[in-house]
Amino acid sequence: MPCGGFAGFAARSRRTRIATTRTAYDPARFPARPRRIAPRRRRVGPFSGGRRPLKALLVDFAEGVRAFAPARFPYRRFALALLLGGLGGWLFLQARLPLPWMLGSMVICTAAALLRWPVAAPSVIRPPMTMVIGVMLGAGFKPDIVAQLPNWLPTIIGLMLFMIACAVACVGYFRKVAGFDPVTAFFAGMPGGLLEMVTLGEEKGGDARIIALIHSARILLVVMTLPFIVQWIGGVPIGGNRVSGPSVMDTPLLAELALLACGVAGIVLGHWLRLPAKYLLGPMLVSAVVHVSGLSDSVPPFEIVNAAQLILGITIGCRFVGTPPRSILRVLALSVGSTVILLSLTLLFAWLVAKVSVHGHVPLILAYSPGGLAEMSLIALALHTEVAFVAAHHIIRVFLVMISAGPLFGLIAGRRQAPKPGPGE
Fold first, then answer.
1. 3-state secondary structure of 145
2. Residue 87 lies in a domain
3. Which class for 227: exposed (0-12), middle (13-18), buried (19 or more C-beta within 10 A)?
4. How much is the mean pLDDT over the chain?
5. 3-state SS string for 228-241
6. Residue whose C-alpha is closest to residue 70's, from 110, 122, 119
7. CA-to-CA distance for 372 and 133, rounded, in angstroms?
8. pLDDT tens per residue across span 245-288
9. Domain carrying residue 340
10. Structural domain count of the chain
C-alpha cells in the first residue's frame, strides 16, 4: 500500500494524538484545544438527599466516635471548661438570673477565653445536647397548633420586612463604621445562622474568621441582654426559673425511650433531607409530629435539659478560644453597636406587628430577636410562652436568609461590576 494510503493516515493520526497529549500546546498547529469535561457533580442543596444517606450518616457517626479518642479530644481542657461552666451556672442560679445554666456558663467561658485559660469545647460534644433541645422544642407543638397557623400570616410578613431592615442597617454599619470589605460586611450583617453565613462568606471571598466572630458575638450579646429586656418590658419575672418538666426519677422509662427514638429518627431524617442544623431541626420535626398527632405528651426531664443548656453555653463561650484577646475585644465592641441596632429594630417591629396580630409583645420579641434558634426557644420555654410560634419564626428566618443571601449578594456584586455607559452611549 502506498505511503499516502490507509497505513500512512493511521501513522499520522497516531503521531497527532501523541503530539496533542505529550507535547506543549501549540495554537498554530492545534487551534481548537481539546476541552476537558469535568465529572458531573451531584447536586447538593439544603433539601437534596444523597444517594446513600444511611451510609453517610454511619460514616459521620463513626467519625464522631473517633473524635473522642484520647489523642484527639482535649479531655483536660474540656473538664476545666465544664467545671467553670458549672460554677457560672450555679452563681447565676443563686443570683436568680434568667437561664442560669446557659448564661452563666457562657459568660464565664467567654471570660476564660479572654484570659487565655486552657479551656476547650470541641464541636463534637454539641450534637447530642442539640438533639435534646430539638426534642424538647418539638414537645412544645400541641394538637391545637394547626388552628393557630392562619394567625401567623401577619407576623411572617412582618418578619420578612424585619429581616430586610436588619440586613440593610447592619451591612451598612459594618461597611461604614467597622470598615469591613463589602463581602465580609454583607455576610457579617445578614441575620442568618452562623455556619451558613461563614460558609457562604468564605465561598465569596470574605474573611471567614471575622464573619464567625461577629455572628458568635451577636448570639452572645443578644442572649445575654434579651432576657432582661423581656423581663423589663413584659413585666415577666424569669429570674431563677428553670425549664418546666418532670424529674428524671419521675419519668417513665417508656416515655424516655420514646423521646430518645424521636431524637435518633430526627437525626436520620435531618441527614437525609440535608436540613440546616440537622441535629436540631430533625429531632424537632419528628417530636413535633409525634406531639401534634397526640401520640405522646411527654417532655424531656429538666435535669437533661439543664445539662443541654450547660453544654450549649460552654460551646458558645469557647468559640473565642485561640483568638487574640485584642481581636475578641474589638469584635465585641463592634458587635455592641450592631446588637443595639438589631434589638432596637426587634422592639420596633414587635410593637408594630402586635397592633395588627393576635400575638403580644413578648412572643413577638422572642420570635423576631436575632439570636440563635435554640437559645431563643429556651428563653421562650423559661417564660412558658408559645414555644412553637417562636421556634417556627426562627426557622423561617434562618431558611430565608440561607436561600437568599447568596443570590442577593451575586445580584448586588453584578450591578457594582457592570460597566458604566460612556458619554456617547
1. helix
2. no
3. buried
4. 78
5. HHHHHHHCCCCCCC
6. 122
7. 12
8. 677 777 777 877 888 888 888 888 888 887 767 888 888 889 88
9. 125-415
10. 1
In terms of Cβ atoms closer than 10 Å to its own Cβ (0-12, 13-18, 19+), residue 276 is buried
What tens digit of pLDDT does each residue of 92-121 get? 888 877 778 888 898 899 899 889 899 998
CA distance 262 to 291: 10
State whether the Cα torsion 144-149-151-152 is positive or negative: positive
CA dihedral in degrees (333, 338, 341, 343; nearest 10)?
Answer: -90
State the pTM of this model.
Answer: 0.69
Cα–Cα distances in Å, from 389 out to 125, 137, 258?
A: 28, 11, 24
DSSP per-residue string spanning 157-188: HHHHHHHHHHHHHHHHHHHHTS---HHHHHHH
Burial group, residue 108, by CB count within 10 angstroms (0-12, 13-18, 19+) = buried
All residues at 6 or more sequence positions from 183 whose CB lies less than 8 Å from its CB, including other chains: 201, 204, 205, 206, 207, 409
The C-alpha cell of 270 is what?
435531618
| Encoded amino acid at 229, one letter | I
Say if residues 301 and 248 touch (Cβ distance below 8 Å): yes
In a domain? residue 11: no
Answer whether residue 338 is part of any domain.
yes
Whose CA is closest to 376, among 159, 175, 66, 94? Answer: 159
Whether residue 369 is contained in a domain is answered as yes
What span, in angstroms and rounded, lies between the C-alpha atoms of 284 and 332? 32
More confident site: 29 or 178: 178
- Helix count and strand count (H, E) for the chain: 17, 0
Grid cell listed for 162: 424585619
Query: 90, 104 in Cβ contact below 8 A?
Result: yes
- Residue 411 is classified by DSSP as H
109 to 318, 330, 363: CA distances (angstroms): 6, 18, 29
